[in-house]
Design brief:
Layout lengths: L9 H8 L6 H7 L4 H7 L5 H17 L11 H11 L5 H6 L2 H15 L2 E2 L2 H15 L5 H15 L1 E2 L3 H24 L4 H9 L11 H6 L7 H16 L12 H13 L2 H6 L2 H48 L1 H24 L3 H8 L2 H14 L8 H4 L3 H5 L2 H7 L2 E3 L4 H16 L18 H4 E2 L2 E2 L1 H18 L2 E3 L33 H24 L6 E4 L2 E4 L8 H13 L3 E2 H12 L17 H12 L4 H7 L5 H11 L2 H16 L4 H4 L4 E10 L3 H5 L11 E9 L4 E8 L8 H7 L8 E4 L6 H9 L3 E4 L9 E3 L6 H4 L3 E4 L2 H6 L1 H13 L4 H10 L5 H23 L1 H24 L12 H35 L6 H4 L10 E2 L13
Parallel strand pairs: 1-2, 9-17, 10-13, 13-14, 15-16
Antiparallel strand pairs: 3-6, 4-5, 7-8, 10-11, 11-12
Helix pairs in contact: 3-4, 4-5, 4-7, 8-9, 8-10, 9-10, 10-16, 13-16, 14-16, 17-18, 17-19, 23-25, 26-41, 28-43, 29-31, 29-43, 32-43, 36-41, 42-43
Organism: Deinococcus daejeonensis
Keywords: DNA recombination, DNA-binding, Transposition
Family: Belongs to the transposase 7 family.
Length: 974
């Protein structure tokens, strides 16, 4: 696949070439003259030459290149150097006009400082050096950034940015060719023929085998699992080389698999043979992993549904037995009263009982109570056996096709799996007496062991249930699975992670003693401050009664004057149709050019087609209805554009263009510096199929749905979004948005609500350099954790939940750092790791150590929260911006009453991305026009203070026409 003609966007080029902000720290570090620079300067007599040579020498050591002839250095830099030389800063303007002198001085400075101009030999070396990085990405920015750092380290003078782009492009193409060669290296003619047959429609069939293999089954049912197992069997029957993708970077393999997934069988046949087989191989390897994960996920949901139904049946039985139990108790109460009277009167007890009830009634009542009191009758497992027939429909094939391995403690469980495989293969029904039972939980024992016999039904159900638990806990892994791999396989290799440079470098001290000592010192200090303030009752808006803290809620922070100002400003903002708004934003940013062709990498030939598809995703209209509402466009045209140009990576690149443009607006600086953000999940209902899939969230009740989880900057720019299954907690995905967005934002502090935090998130945010500040509900009920040497005193004693296990953290410190480095480098994703760690048992050392580290960080945050109303206010304002964004997105995503009808994850992701991009475009368009309105008021002599403007949101939509025919004309002129 050829790389895009323009590897970097215009904003990315500008950011790479821009001179860093000349802060006092930067000036002192890079623009202080030293012995080498002074030696060069002494050879010059004229003040302007001395100043020019000094600036050349300092600039090349700072940025790796000499200033361009048309590039003006920041005045602060010129003045700082001129002051050290005691010359006039204006001399530089006279020096810069003499090109010949400057070029001569550049050669002399480069020779003196050891800098070399790049030659063809250097270019070849650079491409070779870049290839390992290019193997793991298709994005130009990280490659060019790494290349800049490498050239500066080698003291090779930087060539123009276009040359760097060409070098990165060449590295990408070579990485692509190498991956193609690796995937096709071991293919025999028979296997190539088998791959070609995947693209042909068999007789009396409607689909090609490839299209059939791509189909998924969302319903949690035995039939769905059997259908997916058939597809997995079909891929294995191709007998492809098992190690075909072993020597290819996982990211590159995923990129090729994604490209192959988008290509239709008809287009596959048009590709050159080697390219066709490589993409088919990548697609099939990826599909085999996906099928394995889908099978295990459906099995997980089937067992969940079985347990839920069993509990429901048990509860129904209990309710039904209430009348019987009450009648039986009345009979026994009568008998008891008769016995007591007989005892007092010294009468025969049997005669006393016969006077109040018959022996037949008494005998029947005893039998009914014995039935109700039968051991296990109150356990839902009693009814689990009723589902055995359904499980048997797929369990034998599942156990036969999937290969399980695990830690030492799972040995007996794996032996039980082997025994069940043998029973299924031979047709025997009785579990041998020597079958392992050590893995069986105590609760299952009465149902599995019936005297000396093992109940086959409950033994098999118990094995399947324990497999599910151990997979979730990470004690077991499955060959060929992406989600259920060995935890260690997700991380950087243990022997090399510390040597990784660049993106894997963690912004903390890697020495445990330094890191932990500093944290414990801060904890002790903050603990002492809070103890003193709490004893004197001086913590602001905090009360402490009955051993429980209470923090008063914040008062409304938006003054009425700000609301009146917002109303005035929006009256001056023109009314606009959503199509015109998108055209305007595209004219300002060129974001539509980021929707490159999947195969050729070229920009779209039709901007209108791309914008129409994006809008169809954003308003939830769909391509068919959108074509009807868009004169001049057909559904076929839109479907082609969506297939080849609109996908997650192009959405991400286009969103970055809009977010970056928003950050450059002067008004955005009033709202924030682009260094803080918030994230929140917004739930959307799904169709009836969602209920059958088992994706139900306890937080929202029985209605099925999905969550669009979005990160919003302090400048109101929604810079990342993703779709989360309804049964996944928000906190799992907090770090993904902070790490994997493509905008120029440098987020330092992040806010969430209670559902966005766990102690694991606290720990990883600190390790990765983010300040995490969630708004925790019922903060007074949370416990503080302190070092063993600290004494909380009488005042804080009721709030202490325990002592931090420092030894546990120290023992797993290297594993913790390796995990954080793997996440930062992109070797694995934060959400996957948090999901696995959160499901691990309490015996997992790494999960426990990371939790201890998170407890320390959460305690530090809580102590600061109690002291700082400013922190509470920042968090509240940040979360309010996210809520405002959610309100706008609800208004935009209006069709079908905001219900997600798409069943495919990729289609749902496109809906979320389209919605987020349009919301970002509205925020930018409103920002630009609000700026104009403010300028007009100020030109008229009115005072528009920034402290009021910071409360004016750019997320209003009353003036935007979201419905009607979608006509694309020309961008308006401001």
């Amino acid at each position: 696949m050829p790389s895009p003609p323009q590897l970097l966007s215009s904003s990315q080029r500008a950011a790479l070439l821009a001179f860093p902000d000349p802060t006092s720290d930067l000036l002192a570090r890079f623009y202080t003259l030293g012995p080498r620079e002074l030696a060069l300067i002494r050879e010059r007599r004229k003040p302007r030459n001395r100043l020019g040579v000094a600036l050349l020498a300092l600039h090349v050591q700072h940025l790796g290149a000499f200033p361009a002839t048309d590039q003006d250095l920041p005045s602060a830099v010129i003045e700082t150097v001129a002051q050290q030389l005691d010359v006039d800063p204006g001399d530089y303007a006279r020096y810069a006009r003499r090109d010949e002198t400057r070029r001569e001085h550049q050669l002399q400075v480069a020779a003196a400082l050891g800098y070399t101009a790049m030659t063809s030999v250097h270019y070849r070396q650079v491409v070779t050096w870049l290839r390992p990085l290019a193997a793991g990405t298709a994005r130009g920015l990280p490659l060019v950034t790494a290349l800049l750092d490498h050239l500066r380290e080698q003291k090779w003078l930087l060539p123009p940015i276009t040359v760097l782009e060409r070098l990165a492009t060449l590295a990408l193409r070579r990485a692509q060719r190498e991956a193609t060669r690796q995937l096709t290296l071991g293919l025999s003619p028979v296997q190539c023929t088998a791959l070609d047959r995947l693209l042909e429609v068999p007789d009396r069939e409607r689909l090609t085998p490839l299209a059939w293999l791509r189909q998924s089954r969302a319903k949690a049912s035995p039939a769905s699992i059997l259908a997916l197992l058939s597809r997995l069997d079909a891929i294995r029957a191709l007998d492809l080389p098992v190690d075909a993708g072993a020597h290819i970077h996982p990211n590159r393999l995923r990129l090729m698999a994604r490209e192959g997934a988008q290509i239709t069988p008809q287009h596959f046949r048009d590709l050159e043979a080697e390219r066709r087989y490589a993409l088919l191989m990548a697609s099939l390897l990826d599909r085999a992993e996906s099928l394995t994960d889908e099978i295990l996920d459906l099995h997980d949901r089937i067992l969940l549904n079985m347990n839920r139904q069993s509990r429901h049946r048990q509860e129904t039985q209990v309710l039904a037995s209430q009348d019987t139990l009450a009648a039986s108790l009345r009979v026994f109460a009568q008998a008891g009263q008769a016995l007591l009277r007989a005892r007092e009167a010294h009468r025969d007890p049997f005669e006393a009982i016969e006077q109040v009830l018959t022996w037949d009634t008494f005998t029947q009542t005893v039998e009914e109570l014995l039935t109700l009191a039968k051991p296990g009758s109150s356990d839902p497992l009693t009814f689990l056996g009723l589902h055995y027939a359904a499980v048997r429909r797929y369990a034998p094939r599942l156990l036969d096709r999937l290969v399980f391995t695990g830690i030492a403690s799972t040995r007996t469980l794996l032996r039980a799996v082997t025994i069940l495989r043998d029973l299924n293969a031979t047709g025997k029904r009785t579990v041998p007496s020597g079958a392992p039972v050590d893995f069986i939980p105590t609760r299952w024992m009465p149902f599995v062991l019936m005297g000396d016999q093992i109940d086959r039904r409950y033994y098999e159900l118990c094995v399947l249930s324990e497999l599910r638990h151990r997979l979730r806990a990470g004690d077991l892994w499955v060959a060929g699975s992406r989600k259920y791999r060995d935890f260690d396989a997700h991380l950087l290799p243990a022997q090399e992670w510390r040597t990784k440079a660049g993106p894997t470098a963690l912004p903390i001290s890697l020495d445990y003693a330094d890191y932990w000592g500093d944290k414990m010192q801060r904890l002790s200090q903050e603990l002492g401050v809070v103890t003193r303030l709490l004893a004197r009752g001086e913590l602001p808006d905090v009360s402490f009664k009955g051993g429980k803290l209470s923090v008063s809620p914040l008062a409304a922070t938006v003054p009425k004057e700000a609301e009146q100002l917002a109303s005035r400003l929006y009256r001056q903002v023109p009314r606009v149709k959503i199509t015109q708004l998108l055209l305007d934003v595209d004219a300002w940013t060129g974001f539509s050019r980021q929707f490159t062709h999947l195969h050729s990498g070229e920009a779209p030939s039709s901007t209108t087609g791309v914008l129409t598809v994006v809008l169809a995703d954003a308003i939830n209209l769909g391509l068919s209805k959108m074509a009807e509402a868009s004169p001049g466009l057909t559904e076929r045209q839109l479907a082609w554009t969506a297939q080849w140009h609109v996908r997650d990576d192009t959405y991400s690149a286009a969103l970055a263009e809009i977010v970056n443009a928003q950050g450059r607006q002067p008004l955005a600086a009033v709202w924030g510096e682009g260094t803080t953000s918030s994230s929140d999940g917004q739930r959307f209902r799904t169709g009836a199929q969602g209920r059958a899939s088992g994706q139900v969230n306890l937080r929202y009740g029985p209605e099925p749905g999905v969550t669009f989880y979005t990160h919003v900057s302090d400048q109101y720019a929604p810079f990342h979004t993703k779709v989360i299954a309804a049964n996944i907690r928000d906190a799992t995905h907090v770090l993904d948005g902070l790490l994997y967005h493509e905008a120029d934002l440098q987020i330092e502090e992040h806010y969430t609500d209670t559902h966005g935090y766990t102690e694991h998130v606290f720990a990883l945010c600190d390790l990765l350099g983010f300040r995490f500040a969630p708004r925790i509900r019922d903060l007074g009920d949370s416990r503080l954790f302190i070092a063993k040497r600290d004494d909380p005193g009488v005042v804080l004693e009721p709030l202490i939940g325990g002592r931090l296990n420092e030894r546990l953290i120290a023992t797993h410190w290297d594993d913790i750092l390796r995990l954080a480095a793997s996440i930062r480098s992109g070797t694995t994703t934060a959400s996957l790791m948090l999901s696995k760690l959160g499901s691990y048992s309490r015996r997992n050392g790494l999960a426990n150590a990371l939790r201890e580290l998170g407890r320390a960080q959460r305690t530090l945050f809580t102590l600061e929260w109690l002291q700082s109303p400013a922190l509470r206010k920042r968090v509240q304002i940040g979360l309010n911006k996210g809520e405002a964004r959610n309100a706008l997105s609800r208004a935009v995503y209006f069709h079908r009453n905001g219900e997600v009808r798409d069943r495919r994850p990729t289609a749902q992701a496109n809906r979320a991305s389209g919605l987020n991009l349009v919301v970002a475009a509205i925020a930018l368009w409103n920002t630009v026009h609000l700026q104009r309105a403010v300028q007009q008021l100020r030109q008229q002599g009115e005072d528009v203070p920034d402290d009021l403007m910071q409360h004016v949101s750019p997320l209003a939509w009353e003036h935007i026409g979201l419905t009607g025919d979608y006509l694309w004309e020309q961008p308006s002129r401001i």
